[in-house]
Amino acid sequence: GKTFFMNLIRLVALEKGLVVMFADLAPDRRIHATGGQARGLYAEMARNLSTRTKPDGGALASVVERFVSQAHRDAEERDLPTGSVIRERLGHFEELTGGFEFAEVIRRYWEGHETGDDELKSAALRWLRGEFATRTDARKALGVRTIIDDASVYDHLKLMSAFVCEAGYKGLLVGLDEMVNLYKLTSTQARNANYEQILRILNDVLQGSAENLGFLMGGTPEFLMNTRRGLYSYEALQSRLAENTFARDGLVDLSGPVVRLASLTPEDLFVLLANVRRIMQDDAGALPDTALEAFMAHCSDRIGEAYFRTPRNTVTAFVNLLSVLEQNPGVEWNDLIEKIEVSEDLGEDMTEVDESTGAQDPGDDDLISFKL
Questions:
Q1: N or C, which end of the chain has less CB nearby within 10 Å?
Q2: Does residue 246 lie in a domain region?
Q3: 190 belongs to a structural domain
């Protein structure tokens, strides 16, 4: 499925020397919001930030440490203060939205590194992970007047891509799965605001405005093609995501922004079940191929072609069958086949989500508003 495909691309990206930030959208995490949900998504991505040497997430500190270490070596070679070299290497950040504060936080991290102030280093990493909820807290801890908030998430992704390149990586790949959570928003205004942000990302990537930054989004066909609530309901996105009209009758075009994943065939499912069997059973006591064929025939009788097109429940039932056979040596597989219950995979939970779900209390922030 799409999640497996995205994980495969993630592994390839790590092998190629990219930094990856992956996260699943949820009712309390989305691309655009006003109640902290977008910042929550960024914080989740930052926690999951991975590199080749730390593929399981939590690599943000390593990336920052790598950058300041390189700057320190450069400063020693040039006989300059490390802070000056950091300021020089991040000088072009000040031209980007939020870049001045981003560079200042990196310099504050170096100060903590140089003086042994772990609290300062921790505060800098918290800021980079989007964990400061108020500007007041950020100002007290780091002396900066802004934080990563809902309105600046995409701008900080662009800053992060520039920063990882300065740290010696080849770029940043952002992965967002479960995009169907945007489809489930009940508010048309909230959906369109998220789709507008996707349009902004798409324009930047296709036009080359976002350098060294790639996006991978996973969703269902309904999320893409539904003209009432999906991406196709936003006319500007529909025209940009339209498929190649020549790619039909078995022809494919993988150069466009949309990649459709083909359903499994019965032959594919047989190979998949055989691989599951190889993992769970040794050769001596393995089920024969006739058992796999009988199992697939039973599933076909119960739920039709859905057994191989959406095979999640089929594979689950097969694993359960193998587990029972393993723990009950005297039982024969042909005695169990007809008793197996297989239900059709109905896909995503399409329960509607209210716009305010996951909204966070902004807290006591004396910089939220003011009057002259």
A1: C
A2: no
A3: yes
Whether residue 355 lies inside any domain: the answer is no
What pTM value is reported for the model?
0.83
Mean pLDDT is lowest, of 39-43, 81-85, 120-124, for 81-85
Domain check: are 87 and 213 in the same one? Answer: yes
Q: What is the dihedral of CA 227, 186, 177, 231, to 10 degrees?
A: 20
pLDDT in tens, 262-285: 778 888 889 999 999 998 887 767
Measured CA to CA in angstroms, residue 92 lies from 70, 86, 163, 249, 261 at distances of: 18, 11, 11, 49, 40
Task: Report the alpha-carbon distance of residue 3 to residue 255 in Å, rounded.
Answer: 20
Residue 18, CB-side half-sphere exposure with 13 Å CA sphere:
20
Number of domains composing the chain: 2
The 10s digit of each residue's pLDDT in 331-348 is 888 888 877 776 666 555
**Which residues constitute the domain of residue 166?**
2-241
From 241, 274, 291, give the residue that closes a domain.
Answer: 241
Rounded CA gap, 190 and 176, in Å? 18
pLDDT tens-digit series, residues 86-96: 989 998 888 88
CB contact at 8 A, 37 and 190: no
The answer on pLDDT for 367 being more than 50 is no
Residues 283-322: pLDDT tens digits? 767 788 898 898 888 888 877 766 766 687 888 888 988 8
Residue 246 CB partners (closer than 8 Å, separation 6+): 253
Contact 109, 120 (CB under 8 A): yes
Q: Where are the beta strands (DSSP E) in the chain?
A: 19-24, 172-177, 213-217
Number of neighbouring beta carbons within 10 Å of residue 32: 22
**Are 222 and 300 in a shared domain?**
no
Co-location of 129 and 171 in the same domain:
yes
